[in-house]
Amino acid sequence: MGRLAGFRYREVTLRSVCVCLDFALTGPGAGSHELWRHETTGRKVTIPHHSGDMAEGTLRAILREAGVSVESFLKAR
Fold this sequence. Notes:
The protein is α+β, with helices and mostly antiparallel strands. The protein has a single domain (9-76), classed as Hypothetical protein (Metal Transport, Frataxin, Chain A, 2-Layer Sandwich). Helix content is 39%, strand content 22%. The chain contains three helices and three strands.
């Protein structure tokens, strides 16, 4: 397990990517996904809203799409 393993949807969205790093929910995506947008840069991120832990590769892809470093994400927790 890497250091990005074991995060749930709520931890990724409410604590880290959205509240601390200025992303806001813009609406539903396809299926059980949500679209989030950065308020100043306009970057868009799609985050799956599934139960259980998010796969580490999925979380890395979300962070890359958002332009957020792993270190910034872990500090925002």
